[in-house]
Structure formats: C-alpha cells, structure tokens
Design goal:
The protein is α/β, with parallel strands linked by helices. Helix content is about 50%, strand content about 15%. It has 4 domains: about 130 residues, Response regulator (Rossmann fold); about 170 residues, 3-Layer(aba) Sandwich (Rossmann fold); about 70 residues, Helicase, Ruva Protein, domain 3 (Orthogonal Bundle), CATH 1.10.8; about 50 residues, Arc Repressor Mutant, subunit A (Orthogonal Bundle), CATH 1.10.10. It has 19 helices and 14 strands. A 5-stranded parallel β-sheet has the order 2-1-3-4-5, sandwiched between helices.
C-alpha cells in the first residue's frame, strides 16, 4: 500500500488531511514536528510527504533538502499558510515536488498526490532497471574460474575504479564489449551513459559524423543537426570497438579528444567540451599497424595507458564446460526445451576444438545443438562436422600409431594430460615432469 506522511503541528488540519487521504486508499502516518518525522522515515518507506513550512523545530523548506538527500525516491509537497515566491523557488531547488498554500489550494492536494505517486513509481522502475543492468554487466556475471580469466578480471576491476583510458586486446569473440560494460558498471560513471560504436562498421565520413555529430548542411544529405555518440555518452563511457580500423585522419581527431577533452562537429568551428571515459578494443596487433603506417604511435600510447589482453578460449579450456552449460540453459529456455545436461563425448569434442571464433563460436555451436536436440541431453551427433572430426582423429591416433611412433605417442599423451588438467599448462608440465617452456614448444610442434 502506498504510504503518505503528513508533517504539521496543527493537529486538526493534520487529522482532517489524514482522513481525506486515507479515503483514497492510502496508508497515512502523522508527525507534529521534524524530529518525529525523521524517526518515522527511518522506520518505514514513505512514498509522498506532505510537510508544513513552519514547524516547531525546523523549517520545512530546509527539511525537504535533508529528506531528498537521504530518501531520493520520496516526493515532498510543501504546505504553507503564507505563500511567498522565494520560499517556493527554494523549495523546488531543494527537490520538493510542489509548493502549495493551505486553504486556497486544498482541492489540489489529492490530484497532486496522485501525480507525485506516479513520479515515485517511475523512479522505482528506473532504479530497478538500473539494478538489473548493473547485475547483468557486473564482473560477477563473467563466466570462468580458470586462473587466466580471473587474473584478467582482477586487472579490469582495478582500472574500473579510475578514469584511466583502457585498451582491450585479444582475438575476435573473446568478450571485449562484455569487459568494457563491466568496467563501466564498476566505475563511478555507472549512472551515466555507456555508448558503443564499431569503427569497422562505417565508412570514414560516416564514422566521423557518428562519433562527433554534424551541423545541418555540413554535407549532402545533412538536413538537420546530429548530436554524435561522444556527446551522447556525455560524462559516461564510450566504447570504441575495432579501433585499429579507424582512418589516420580520424585518429588525429580522436587524439585531440583525449588530450584536450574537446571535439569539433562536422561543419562546425567551435569546439565542444567533453568529459568522457574512453575504452577502446582491437583484435589487431597495433604495434605492427604502427610499423606499417596504419596507426598513429602517439594515439596508441594515449589509448594503452592501461592495456588488458583478453585470453583466447583455447587458453581457458577449464571454462568451456561452464560456458557451454550457461549457453545450453539460455538457448533451451528460449526454444522451450528441457535440456538438462551435456554428454561426456560432446564435452570432450568441445575441449579438443581450437575455437578460432572463441566464445562467440562456442555460443553458436551450442545454439545449433540445442535446435537439433530431441533429448534432454546435448548429444555428440548434434555437433558440427569439424568438432566431430576432432574426436575421430583422436580415436584414430589412439588406435593406429605403432609402438615405434614415439612422436605420435608423445602427442597423444600430452593431449590427454591437457584434457585432464582442463588446459592448465603449468599443471600439465608438472604432471609430465617437464619444463613449462618445453611444454609450450611441444604444443607448438604438435599443433595442439
């Protein structure tokens, strides 16, 4: 039930208001002074407060500011016997919903209450959605218990607390945008906008317009002003994906944004000031791009103040089962199926695959298998051909190599131990009683 608190030292008026409001189906609490009111606010959640301006122990205009600071979702309607413009202006500045005169505006109280409740409900929905968004993009929702992914998450958590520019590197499909959103949600900019743009999705001219906006008439087809994504991000975070695809002249303009905190709209001569955090990402080797003359070295140094390399899926075999199970649950729910588990040979095939498309590829494989599945378990026969072939090749190796084929036996044994340790190379080297460098050389030699 919606709750109203009436704060007024005039008992007759307070009682009358309480009776009228309770007839509307609201729960009404009363307080004769500021001290009592604050105690009631501590004890229960109040939606709307009707407060007299002149109270025995405080001023209602000042009290409204204190209440809004502590209980931002509550709305306050101030009542006064002697209305004046300065008090009314200050009340609104302090966060009051409205300011009305007793007696003259009595017929406004109930409609005002309903409007105030609408605002409270809207604020609560927004808060709930923000909470859901924060939970969805929190670091806790990044799946993986392998050492390499946990170390990556720890790095991202540390930089999230700062305003430092971040460069995320790694292969395609490793989850760079997921990390960018998690960094934003863990930062002090979490209540501001998060805007993402893929730099490879636009031509050079369109990308400049998308990023910085343009004035009407700046070029053919520019019939009206466009804000641009940097301005849209405001004091929040902008994520520049595939930064390595950006044209050199645009890189110079981005460098100005980082160094000067300002940019020029297309067709405008006056710079726009901006306070935005930049997170960039690339699957390219930017050092090689610099050597080839495709990327500015000064921009690279500005972007890579804090660089985080996201591990490829083949480096975190221990997380494959967790990820596959999560995707299985998501897609089986979407498809209206009750798939509860993954068969051992299906899982083994996943662990043997090299995953050039990383998490994105795994997600697609699981979705395909869920669509094809007719049982309550993901079975081997629903896998794509190339994953089935991994198992076939392994079984063939186990069956056909001779006692004299030492390399084949060595390769098979290393693969088995890697599977046993879920891809943990340090543990694999320990169990094989060889140096870690030797293991890496063998993995490269055998193409594991």
């Amino acid at each position: 039930m919606k709750k109203v608190l009436i704060i007024d030292d005039e008992e007759k008026l307070r009682t009358l208001l309480a009776r009228i409001i309770s007839l509307e189906g609201f729960e009404v609490l009363q307080a004769a002074d500021c001290k009592t009111a604050l105690k009631k606010l501590e004890q229960t959640v109040i939606d709307v407060i009707l407060c007299d301006v002149k109270l025995p122990d405080c001023n209602g205009v000042e009290l409204s500011k204190n209440i809004k600071d502590q209980y931002p979702l509550s709305e306050i309607i101030l009542l006064t016997a002697y209305g004046n413009i300065s008090d009314g202006v200050q009340a609104i500045k302090n966060g009051a919903f409205d300011y009305i005169t007793k007696g003259d505006d009595n017929n406004k109280v109930i409609p005002l209450l309903y409007r105030a409740f609408e605002k409270v409900e809207l604020a609560k929905r927004v808060q709930h959605l923000e909470k859901q968004l924060g939970e969805k993009h929190s670091f806790d929702n990044i799946i993986g218990k392998s050492k390499v992914i946990q170390e990556t998450i720890d790095l991202a958590k540390k930089v999230a607390e700062t305003d430092t520019t971040v460069l995320l590197t790694g292969e395609t499909g490793t989850g760079k945008e997921v990390f960018a959103q998690s960094i934003h949600q863990a930062s002090n900019r979490r209540h501001k906008n998060f805007v993402a743009i893929n730099c490879s999705a636009f031509s050079r001219d369109l990308l400049e317009s998308e990023m910085f906006g343009h004035k009407a008439g700046a070029f053919t087809g520019a019939t009206k002003d466009q804000k641009g994504l940097f301005a849209e991000a405001g004091d929040g975070t902008i994520f520049l994906d595939e930064i390595g695809e950006m044209a050199l002249d645009l890189q110079a303009k981005l460098l100005r944004v980082i160094e000067m905190g300002e940019f020029l709209k297309v067709g405008e001569s006056k710079p726009t000031k901006i306070n935005v955090r930049i997170i960039a990402a690339t699957n390219r080797d930017l050092q090689k791009e610099i050597e080839a003359g495709h990327f500015r070295q000064d921009l690279f140094y500005r972007l890579s103040v804090f660089q985080i390399k996201l591990p490829a899926l083949k480096e975190r075999v221990a997380d494959i089962e967790l990820l596959a199970t999560q995707f299985m649950q998501i897609f089986s729910a979407k498809a209206g199926k009750k798939i509860k588990s993954i068969s051992p040979d299906f899982l083994q095939a996943l662990k043997l695959h090299q995953w050039p498309g990383n998490i994105r590829e795994l997600k697609n494989v699981i979705e395909r298998s869920v669509i094809l599945s007719t049982a309550d378990k993901l079975e081997f026969d629903t896998l794509p051909y190339e994953l089935k072939e991994n198992i076939a090749q392994t079984k063939k190796s186990e069956k056909n190599f001779s006692a004299f084929e030492l390399a084949s036996a060595e390769k098979l044994h290393i693969q088995k131990v890697l599977n046993y340790t879920n891809g943990n190379k340090t543990e694999t080297a320990r169990l094989l009683n060889i140096a870690l460098t030797t293991l890496y050389r063998k993995i490269d030699e055998f193409g594991l």
